[in-house]
C-alpha cells in the first residue's frame, strides 16, 4: 500500500510516500479501515523529528486520526460492518491507505460532516473532551483559558466550552484574534505582546480561570498557576514552551489548585474507547447541529505531506490541516 515513511528523523523533507509498505491486518477486536483522509497534528512533527516514538505495539507510520470505510472486521467485532463510513482515533498509522485500529476507537461520522473533514475530528474532540471535561470537570459558568486558540485543539476547545456555557478566554497570534472571537472566545490575548494573567483577571473581575488548557508546558507553568481561580485546574497537554518550568507550591497551595499533565496517545485502548464513547454522546450532537465546527484550513494530497508539515511548523494556520489519502 501507499504510506508516508520516514527513513531518518529530520525536517519535513524526510517525509516520503512509498508504494510498497506492508498492509496491516485487523487483529482480534480490531477493524481494518480503508483510509479516505488523515489530519496533521503537532505531535506528528515531533515524531518525524524522532522526538515522539509510537507507543509499544503501535504502527510506526505517522498519523493519529483518520476517516474512511470499514474494509474488514477482526475477530469479535460486532457493532460495525464492512462498508461503514467512520472516523477513528489512532495510536499511529493514519498516513497510509489502510490502518488497523481497535474497534472502540472507531466512531461514526457525525451527521452533516463530509468524509474528508471527518478526518480532522477524532484527535481534537477526544483530547479536548478527555482533558477539559473528564479530567478538569469544566461546567457551565466556569472560566476556561485555552492557550493557542487558533490551532486544531484550541479551535475545538473554544467552541466546545462555549457550547457548554463556559466563559472562554484564549491566547492567540494577533492575526487570529477575530477568528477566535467568532468561535466563541470572549477574551483574546495576543500571546506575543499581551499579559494573559493580568488580562484574564481583569476580564473576570479578579476571579481568574477555573480551568487552563495548556499547550506551552514549562514556559507558562508559573503564569498558569498565577491565573488560576481558587480550586482551579491546569491541564498541560503540550510542551511547545519546553518540558521544564518552576512550580512555586506556595502559589498553588492557598488556592487548593492542581496541575495535571496527560497524553492521549499512550492510554490503554479501554480508556480510549471510553473517551470515544463519551465524545460520540456529548460532542457529536454539537457538531451535527453546527454549534461546533471543525474548521479545515486546507486539504492537501498525501504527496504534499512535507508542505503540510511545513505549514504547521510555520504557524498561523487556523484549525486543521487535512491530508486527502485516497483522493491524491
Ligand atoms: N497531550 C495530548 O494528548 C495531546 C493531544 C493532542 C495535541 N496535544 C498538544 O496540543 C497542542 C496543540 O496541538 P495542535 O495539533 O492543535 O497544534 P497546532 O494546530 O499547531 O496549534 C498550536 C497552537 O499554538 C499556538 N502558539 C504558538 N506559540 C504560542 C504561545 N507562545 N502561546 C500560546 N499559543 C502559542 C499556535 O499559534 P500560531 O499558529 O499563531 O503560532 C497554534 O495555534 C500541541 O502542543 C500538541 O502537542 C496534546
Based on the model shown, name its key terms.
single chain, 328 residues, alpha/beta, 7-stranded mixed β-sheet, 10 helices, 15 strands, globular, binds NADP nicotinamide-adenine-dinucleotide phosphate
Radius of gyration over alpha carbons?
19 Å
Dominant shape: globular
Count up the helices.
Answer: 10
How helical, in percent, are the residues? Answer: 25-40%
Number of strands: 15
Mean pLDDT: 97
Percent of residues in beta strands?
Answer: 25-35%
Distance between the termini: 14 Å
The poorly predicted ranges are: none
What is the N-to-C order of secondary-structure elements (H for helix, E for strand)?
EEEHEEEEHEHEHEHEHEHEHHEHE
In short:
By secondary structure, the protein is an alpha/beta fold. The chain contains ten helices and 15 strands.
Description:
The chain has ten helices and 15 strands. With 328 residues, the protein is an alpha/beta fold. It starts with a strand and ends with a strand. Strand 8, helix 3 and strand 9 form a beta-alpha-beta unit. Helix 2 crosses helix 3 and helix 5 runs parallel beside helix 6. The strands form three sheets. Strands 3, 4, 5, 6, 7, 14 and 15 form a seven-stranded mixed beta sheet that branches. Strands 10-9-8-11-12-13 form a six-stranded parallel beta sheet, sandwiched between helices. The chain has a two-stranded antiparallel ribbon with strand order 1-2. 48% of the residues are buried. The chain is globular. Bound molecules: NADP nicotinamide-adenine-dinucleotide phosphate.
Amino acid at each position: 500500500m501507499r504510506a508516508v515513511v520516514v527513513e531518518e528523523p529530520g525536517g519535513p523533507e524526510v517525509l516520503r510516500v512509498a508504494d510498497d509498505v506492508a498492509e496491516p491486518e485487523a487483529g482480534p477486536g480490531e477493524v481494518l479501515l480503508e483510509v479516505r483522509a488523515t489530519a496533521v497534528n503537532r505531535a506528528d512533527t515531533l515524531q518525524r523529528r524522532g522526538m515522539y516514538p509510537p507507543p509499544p505495539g503501535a504502527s510506526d507510520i505517522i498519523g493519529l486520526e483518520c476517516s474512511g470505510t470499514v474494509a474488514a472486521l477482526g475477530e469479535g467485532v460486532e457493532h460495525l460492518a464492512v462498508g461503514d463510513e467512520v472516523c477513528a482515533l489512532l495510536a499511529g498509522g493514519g498516513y497510509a491507505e489502510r490502518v488497523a485500529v481497535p474497534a472502540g476507537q472507531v466512531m461514526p461520522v457525525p451527521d452533516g460532516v463530509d468524509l474528508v473533514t471527518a478526518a480532522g475530528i477524532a484527535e481534537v474532540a477526544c483530547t479536548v473532551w478527555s482533558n477539559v471535561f473528564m479530567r478538569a470537570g469544566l461546567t457551565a459558568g466556569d472560566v476556561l483559558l485555552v492557550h493557542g486558540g487558533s490551532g486544531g485543539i484550541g479551535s475545538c476547545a473554544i467552541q466546545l466550552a462555549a457550547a457548554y456555557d463556559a466563559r472562554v478566554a484564549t491566547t492567540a497570534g494577533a492575526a487570529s484574534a477575530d477568528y477566535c472571537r467568532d468561535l466563541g472566545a470572549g477574551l483574546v490575548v495576543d500571546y506575543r505582546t499581551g499579559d494573559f494573567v493580568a488580562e484574564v483577571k481583569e476580564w473576570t473581575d479578579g476571579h481568574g480561570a477555573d480551568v487552563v488548557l495548556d499547550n506551552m508546558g514549562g514556559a507558562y507553568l508559573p503564569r498558569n498557576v498565577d491565573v488560576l481561580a481558587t480550586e482551579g485546574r491546569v491541564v498541560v497537554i503540550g510542551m511547545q514552551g519546553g518540558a521544564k518550568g518552576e512550580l512555586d507550591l506556595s502559589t498553588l497551595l492557598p488556592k487548593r489548585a492542581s496541575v495535571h499533565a496527560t497524553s492521549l496517545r499512550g492510554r490503554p485502548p479501554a480508556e480510549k474507547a471510553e473517551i470515544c464513547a463519551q465524545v460520540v454522546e456529548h460532542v457529536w450532537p454539537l457538531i451535527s447541529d453546527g454549534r461546533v465546527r471543525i474548521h479545515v484550513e486546507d486539504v492537501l494530497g498525501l504527496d504534499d505531506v512535507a508542505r503540510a508539515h511545513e505549514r504547521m511548523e510555520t504557524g498561523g494556520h487556523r484549525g486543521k490541516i487535512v491530508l486527502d489519502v485516497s483522493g491524491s
